[in-house]
């Protein structure tokens, strides 16, 4: 029985220039790779009798229910510091919103074909980035970090041409609290469209932060959500890779798994993204970049305030609190990783450990997962740590055994490219259950397996 999707899409109540409605472009031979029944259940959807063929037809866009109202959103954004006044969903189509037990969500097909915002792109995705996002977002979710989620992945039967040559095309079904980004506000701010900016602000407050007190309250709420989110990333050794303002989601979920990675060997300066040559989005730059991105958000919000000078003063005070707020969130993430309650002593112990890990080229995940081993590796640190009387059950429960390691993802993608999805399914099971040790997924890469560059998720 096909899935019943009772779309109820409020974004379309906003003015016409917020989006473009358009049908999904058909694909030739959709095949289901994976469907996330667990997520479907959490969304209140009954997928028990959904067949693979029905899922493939639906999540390729070939056969959409009458309730779907496909459209692409417009947005702008600072990309690597330079402002692009118009981006928008170039390879994604919103099917609509669902009001679910998890709250209101957007359902989006990523890789569904060209839209008016595709610029030079083909609007398509190949199986590599689709599987990477599927694995990464399932891992993030299982690790308890706010993230967009993956409901389904299909192959399209149509080749997609990339630098490497023709590759199997695929579509990811993404579920998000919404796709409103800092860049959505920037789009209207850059045009001086204050009416639209007001409507977007009101809509966003109502949808995501109903308790926020006006635009200033919204700014504070978004800052808090971003500080918590990025602190969580830091605690997992996660590097987003493309923290452009169009990839900063207002609801505070991790979004757009392009050239992202969980670090193996710890180093503060680690960068993976092949397009980030300056190291703008290196691991240790993620907090200051978040601060900068939030300042861009504040700038975009100024026109909705009655008095620009007063707004700039108020917003500056809010934004200036970011470093202190972030330091607090960082301490709240790292203290339990050591089995401690947050305190200045716990924070400095965590900082000391990271310094030693960096010198020793220690594996990030495995070091925290086996803190007992620091007795041998870092004896002085270990003694200081034990002197704090840590709760061993707490750090064991906080630090995962399994993260989606880049070299393993690349290996599963290689297999999938030749039509073998078994390694993907095996890895998906492992990363969806990250606190259960599975040896095969806990090994850092051998030197010849090491991936030093990841590519943009197209
Ligand atoms: P991202 O780096 O994934 O955040 O993408 C930046 C912008 O480029 C977004 O507006 C995307 O929709 C667009 N884009 C990326 N890949 C493609 C593609 N293959 N076709 C059309 N637009 C794309
Ligand atoms: Mg993006």
List the topology elements.
Layout: E1 19-21, E2 31-35, H1 37-42, H2 52-59, E3 71-73, E4 77-79, E5 82-84, E6 92-100, E7 103-110, E8 125-126, H3 127-142, E9 149-162, E10 165-176, H4 182-190, H5 194-208, H6 214-236, E11 238-239, E12 261-262, H7 286-301, H8 308-320, H9 322-337, H10 344-360, H11 364-369, H12 374-377, H13 379-386, H14 392-398, H15 406-417, H16 422-431
Cofactors, ions, other ligands: adenosine monophosphate, magnesium ion
Helix content: 40-55%
Distance between the termini: 33 Å
Give me the oligomer status: single chain
> The biggest beta sheet, please?
6 strands, antiparallel
- For the record, the count of structural domains works out to 2
Beta-strand level of the residues, as a percent range? 5-15%
Cα radius of gyration in angstroms: 22 Å
Q: Secondary-structure element order, as H and E?
A: EEHHEEEEEEHEEHHHEEHHHHHHHHHH
Name the shape in a single word. Answer: globular
DSSP E strands, number? 12
- The low-confidence runs, each spanning 5 or more residues with pLDDT under 50, are none
Class per helix and strand makeup: alpha+beta
